[in-house]
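Sequence design from tokenized structure. All designs in this work follow the same two-part layout: the structure record, then the generated sequence. An example of the structure record is given first.
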């Protein structure tokens, strides 16, 4: 029986496994994933305003393990010539070093946050919070709910990074919490962006109007190159003081990708529809770690996974193909200027089936869009994790 190893039990990895099963592939499918649980990304920013709770966005792998083998471990090396994957166990019952052999390898490990290019990052790592992992959201939340006055600096690195609107969401949700607490006038909020516009560009004009109403200062085209104890410095030498820093580090694929010669920042693929590595027919990429010319978000991650699974089914001579194209709809949280902990969102989308890609948006923020995003996120979790 063929062996398929999938690295990463997130949106893309589990979508590959599900599609291979739906396609009738008779294979031993193993998902190796870092943690015994998964935290969904999209609504993490709402933990700041208490509109989301961790229990609604955490999933275990026990239902998934009824259908495929799940190994909890961190992959640290891939040898494409020998078709081997090495991992170190992250779960007591699977503890220690392990190795898996494969006929097909699908790499879907998502991104890592890499601050190593920023001077002073290691020394001041404790000052860096953001909405990108549950621990750090909780730190950021604690700071925002307890500080009495000061400057909040929010930072977005150069695109592509995971979830384009997350930095603006962070700035506007912090604004809402401070308003709710009645202390907004004691704070300055500055959004520093390494890009020429806040991301995604399709809603940058609306965000700019909301920022103006909220009194959030925005500085574009400024890459943070240094972090000090209470200041950051940008490439052009501008210095900004901070009391609270919500900085997103540049994103990249985990280091083992580069060490295996599979890509430098992202995993190389032949094309968005053919996600095989250019040098290896049996190594495919999916999700945020894949080097695709699209934004890094859940819809694109899912769609790339279906393309990757379709390719394996094709190579195995099976006729089933999941229906898929690259297009997405998204919802960006834009806070609440009245200080109610009831978040408004903007709806936007991009359709990559036309050239140039077709953007769409509703410039009117709505609380209904926040609810729609929640339903969408829960639907994905139910489909992939079985509950
Ligand atoms: C704060 C935040 C807000 C977001 N907002 C939105 C949004 O509004 N809309 C939207 O569409 N998307 C949003 N996203 C992005 C969305 O969550 C990702 O694009 C999507 O999860 C990518 O899927 P993936 O499978 O590539 O990565 P993930 O879902 O992250 O899955 C990767 C899995 O691989 C595991 N892994 C990592 N390294 C290893 C390793 N070395 N060995 C084994 N396993 C490993 C990880 O633990 C994880 O379980 C947001 C993300 C975050 C964090």
């Amino acid at each position: 029986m063929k062996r398929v190893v999938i690295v990463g039990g997130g949106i893309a990895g589990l979508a590959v496994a599900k599609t291979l099963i739906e396609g009738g592939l008779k294979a031993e499918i193993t998902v190796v994933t870092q943690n015994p649980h998964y935290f969904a990304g999209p609504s993490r920013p709402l933990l700041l305003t208490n509109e989301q709770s961790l229990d609604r966005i955490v999933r275990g792998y026990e239902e998934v393990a009824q259908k495929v083998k799940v190994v909890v471990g961190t992959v640290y090396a891939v040898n494409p010539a020998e078709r081997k994957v090495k991992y170190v166990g992250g779960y007591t019952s699977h503890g220690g070093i392990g190795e898996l052999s494969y006929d097909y390898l699908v790499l879907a490990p998502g991104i890592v946050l890499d601050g190593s290019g920023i001077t002073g990052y290691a020394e001041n790592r404790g000052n860096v919070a953001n909405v990108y992992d549950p621990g750090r959201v909780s730190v950021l939340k604690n700071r925002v709910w307890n500080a009495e006055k000061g400057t909040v600096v929010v930072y977005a690195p150069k695109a592509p990074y995971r979830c384009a609107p997350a930095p603006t969401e962070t700035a506007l949700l912090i604004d809402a919490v401070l308003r709710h607490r009645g202390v907004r006038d004691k704070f300055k909020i500055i959004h520093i962006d390494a890009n020429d516009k806040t991301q995604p560009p399709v809603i940058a004009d609306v965000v700019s109007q909301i920022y103006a109403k909220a009194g959030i200062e925005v500085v574009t085209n400024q890459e943070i190159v240094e972090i000090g104890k209470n200041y950051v410095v940008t490439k052009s030498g501008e210095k900004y003081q901070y009391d609270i820093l919500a900085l997103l580090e540049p994103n990249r694929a985990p280091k083992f990708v580069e060490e295996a010669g599979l890509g430098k920042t992202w995993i190389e693929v032949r094309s968005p529809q053919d996600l095989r590595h250019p040098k290896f027919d049996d190594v495919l990429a999916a999700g945020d770690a894949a080097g695709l010319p699209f934004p890094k978000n859940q819809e694109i991650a899912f769609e790339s996974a279906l393309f990757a699974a379709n390719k394996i089914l094709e190579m195995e001579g099976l006729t089933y193909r999941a229906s898929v194209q690259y297009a997405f709809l998204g919802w960006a949280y834009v806070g609440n200027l009245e200080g109610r902990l009831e978040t408004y969102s903007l709806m936007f989308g991009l359709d990559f089936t036309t050239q140039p890609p077709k953007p769409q948006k509703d410039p009117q923020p709505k609380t209904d869009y926040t609810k729609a995003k929640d339903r969408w996120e829960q639907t994905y979790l139910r489909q992939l994790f079985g509950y």
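Residues 367-385 form the longest helix (19 residues). We note this feature because it recurs in several other targets discussed in the main text.
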